[in-house]
Every structure is written in C-alpha cells, then in structure tokens.
Amino acid sequence: MAISGLVITFNEEKNIGKCIDALFEVCDEVIIVDSLSTDNTVKIAEEKGAKVISQKFLGDGPQRTHGLPFCKNDWILNLDADEFLDKDAKEFILKGKYLEGNYDAFSFRVKNFLADELIDFSGWYPDHKVRFFNKKTAKPSEAKVHQKIETTNEKKVAVHILHYGWESFEQIIAKKNQYSTWHAQQLFDQGKRVGAMKPVINGLIAFIRCYFFKKGIFNGIDGITIALIQGFFSHMKYAKLLKLQRQEKLLKR
C-alpha cells in the first residue's frame, strides 16, 4: 500500500531535511503544510522533493486536516518535523503489518529526548501518539492544541517514534508555556470555567504524580526538574484560563 507523509511546519529548517529523508524511506510522497515560515524551511522541503502547501496556522488539528486533500494515498504517516520512525516502526510499516486486521489507526510509543538523552520517567514514556492512520475513516480532531486522531478502530502497537523536541530545559519551558496559552484559550472557547484554586491544586497533583508515581524521584535533578515543569504547565494552563474568565467578567460589566 502506498503511504503519504504529512508534516506541519513553522521555521523548521534545522529538522525538515532529515524529516523528509526519513519519511521517503516508507512513503512515496511527502506533503508539507507550512505556516508561512520565515527561514529556509520551504526551500529545503522543495529541494528534498516534498510538495509544500502554504497556510496560515489554523491550529494543530485544523492545520493537519487542511493537508489531507493534498495527500493522494489513503494511509497517512503524520509526523512532526522533529519526529522520526524507530527501526521497529519502519519494519511495522514496510512489512505491511498494519494491513493485518481491520484497523484504521495505529498508536505508536514515543521516546522523548532532551538533546540526546532519553527521558523515560515522569510520565514521558511510554507516551502514545496516533501518527499513522487511514484518512477514509480516521482524521485529526479540530482541537487547536494537542489534537488527537478521531478513529473508529485504533490499535496500540509496541513500536516507536523518536521525538527530538528539545535541546535544553529552557526550550521545554518555552514550549510548555506556549501550549498552556493555547490550551487555556481552547478550554475557554469550549465554555470551561474553573475556580480560583484550580491552578494550584492541579499543578501540585501533576508534580506529585510525575515525581512520586511516574519514577521522577529515581532520576535525580532531571527527575525533579521534569516533574516541576509538568506541574508548571498544569498550573499555568488554568491560571491563564482564570485570567480569561476575569477579562470576560470585566467586559460584561
């Protein structure tokens, strides 16, 4: 079965070349939906043989959905620019194991790396993501942040995606801060409202879960740092939601 690689990008000149080369190992075409990058992402992608569609960022889910009509094949491998298939995932696809059974989407395990160090604690492994699906019956959700694939018959498989998302703790914090803003707005738009203690309670719960129950405590300074970052994300998501609620009340007055 032919497979289309689909990637959404914004200023990914560092990763996009390697990403496209890796996708062409299992795909017969690669579609890039680019959010008006200001670096060399588009130039590199086109030189590597990918088809580039320029589209102002619509949100995580809608941006991916926008690219589907440009994919000529039904099976879609939808990775981010900093994600690569591990050897077991390549074998799973190349040997056609995804055709065994009536499944329309597959959830792979994700190995998250900080620089070249695998973060396999604080709930970061096994982290599951659906990145491989049949667009006839499965598709990205409309969520603008942390979208999921809407599927009728998903299967989890013990093969891996390698995610090289961060070079430093500073980058993790910056991304988590950005995601918290998007997530707060999404919750607000959905009509979600919370009380004043929600940020504190959820931040503490997230830290305790990651540090004590997800093995962060056994991983030294990195373990406590990752757990604190997870707590920070949870706290800020709801703190920003509270701010939106207060702004709404002021406007009504």
Automatic annotation (TrEMBL):
Protein origin, superkingdom: Bacteria
Positions of the Glycosyltransferase 2-like domain: 6-94
Coiled-coil region list: none
Transmembrane segments: none
InterPro entries cross-referenced by the UniProt entry: Glyco_trans_2-like (IPR001173), Nucleotide-diphossugar_trans (IPR029044)
A UniProt-annotated Pfam family: Glycos_transf_2
Family under the similarity heading: Belongs to the glycosyltransferase 2 family. WaaE/KdtX subfamily.
Name of the protein described by the UniProt record: Glycosyltransferase family 2 protein
UniProt source species: Flavobacterium fragile
